[in-house]
Specification:
- The chain is 36% helix and 21% strand.
- By secondary structure, it is an alpha/beta fold.
- Strands 1, 2, 3, 4, 5, 14, 15 and 16 form an 8-stranded mixed β-sheet that branches. It has an 8-stranded parallel β-sheet with strand order 6-7-8-9-10-11-12-13.
- The protein contains 16 helices and 16 strands.
- The protein has 2 domains: 5-71 and 368-415, Urease, subunit C, domain 1; 74-360, TIM Barrel (Alpha-Beta Barrel), CATH 3.20.20.140.
- α5 packs across α6 (153-169), α7 (192-208) runs parallel beside α8 and α10 crosses α12.
- The structure holds N-(iminomethyl)-L-glutamic acid and fe (iii) ion.
Length: 416
């Protein structure tokens, strides 16, 4: 057999185990030295030693020069599709105006809603596509994308269609989430129940047209209550959706307990999760998706308690939360650094959190290097896997492959 591609001289090959990895299992990360990979028809076809790999017949060979190869990263929480930008809010934040106050004044999410309503589907598509390219350039080969900047039928629909078309046309797998209840639009001010029903009424058609796999809701003071979130999640489950929730980000409302109790696929943010909530995550099936980039970007000092979550037995994943207001970065590697610096996660836990656990949090089987599985992987210009969280805010990706096809190659000089 002639392989399409053989990667030789891999210094460290990272082989996360099947997820979800809970608690202490997150500390385990198989790292094999001096390896090679053979790719055929877009899939991993052979994994073995560098010596054997060097003699395999292949159409193309890449010498990894002793550097690190990992599975493609998975970003399980992004707000990918939006109009406009919100750099003007920076001075408000500097002046100490809280995130929820900006929202209350019609800014924040609602300012992005205005821009997103104004832009055409084609404009939103072009922008989102560029964001996806940037994420891929940073090593991401599968990601989740939420709607939630429409807050009306027409615009939510427009966002969901953009994600569908991106997924069909693009290089990267994009898993769609309907986040209709992301805020209360100005036209429904004081009528959040009526707005929620309007969003629930969209669910059957979204299901029918297969426009989303998950639903999500922003459960927070001044946005949606625990009771409203429960109602929305139950309605979603009844229609065959799996659920996610923006929970306990700012105030400790009990969204973590709600998610674990209802068997949500993930509960995201969790900065203010209670002890009871963490216990329930450890006992249940819900993955904690932590977003330290958002805490950093909002200028807060308290981060989600990843240590308690892992030490008590929960499955933790990491994501960018890429969006135009509360975390403006494409770079999941930066999030890996914040997880190390601010949440005291170990390198092994971090790698599992951005591969298999992230994949599990969006119902995918990505994030692993396994014979017969799609060849999604990254060659990193680093001497070892601990180096990526250590050297922060850089892009260490040298080459990125999706389904065996190179989707990114760095042009500037190597560091190692
Ligand atoms: O996950 N917290 C709510 N939603 C997003 C932010 C969206 C925005 O500010 O535009 C988040 O942080
Ligand atoms: Fe978010």
């Amino acid at each position: 057999m002639i392989y399409d591609l053989v990667i030789t001289n891999i210094g460290q090959l990272l082989l996360p185990d099947q997820g979800p990895l809970k608690g202490g299992a997150m500390k385990q990360l198989a790292v094999e030295k001096q390896r090679a990979l053979g790719i055929k028809d877009g899939r991993f076809a052979w994994i073995g030693s560098h010596e054997e790999g060097a003699s395999l017949p292949a159409r193309e060979k890449v010498d990894a020069e002793g550097k690190v190869v990992s599975p493609g990263l998975v970003d399980p929480h992004t707000h990918l599709v939006f109009g406009g930008s919100r750099e003007g809010e920076m001075v408000l934040k500097q002046a100490g105006v809280p995130y929820l106050d900006i929202l209350k004044q019609g800014g924040g999410i609602l300012s992005t809603v205005k821009s997103t309503r104004e832009e055409t589907e084609a404009e939103l598509f072009d922008k989102a596509k560029k964001h996806v390219r940037q994420m891929a350039a940073h090593g991401v080969t599968t990601l989740e994308a939420k709607s939630g900047y429409g807050l009306d039928r027409e615009t939510e629909w427009k966002q969901l269609k953009v994600v569908k078309h991106l997924n069909e046309q693009g290089d990267i797998d994009i898993v769609s989430t309907f986040l209709g209840p992301h805020a209360i639009p100005l036209e429904y001010k004081g009528k959040s129940d009526a707005f929620l029903e309007e969003m629930i009424a969209m669910l059957p058609e979204i299901k029918k047209q297969n426009l989303a796999v998950f639903t999500d809701i922003f459960c927070e003071t001044g946005v949606f209550t625990i009771e409203q979130s429960k109602h929305f999640m139950e309605a979603s489950h009844q229609l065959g959706f799996q659920t996610k929730i923006h929970a306990d980000e700012i105030d400790s409302l009990g969204g973590t307990e709600l998610a674990a109790g209802l068997g949500a696929v993930s509960a995201d943010h969790l900065v203010a999760a209670s002890k009871q909530g963490i216990k329930q995550l450890a006992e249940g099936e819900t993955t904690a998706v932590l977003l330290p980039g958002t805490t950093f970007y909002l200028g807060k000092d308290t981060y989600a308690d990843a240590r308690s979550m892992i030490d008590q037995g929960a499955a933790v994943a990491l994501a960018t939360d890429f969006n135009p207001g509360s975390c403006v970065t494409h770079n999941l590697q930066m999030i890996m650094s914040l997880a190390a610096l601010k949440m005291k996660m170990t390198p092994e836990e971090i790698w599992n959190a951005v591969t298999v656990n992230a994949s599990h949090a969006i119902g995918q089987k990505a994030g692993r290097i396994v014979k017969g599985k799609p060849a999604d992987f990254v060659l990193w210009d680093v001497p070892n896997y601990q180096y990526i969280p250590y050297h922060y805010a850089a892009n260490h990706a040298k080459m990125v492959w999706k389904n065996g096809r190179k989707v990114y190659e760095r042009m500037d000089a190597d560091v190692f």
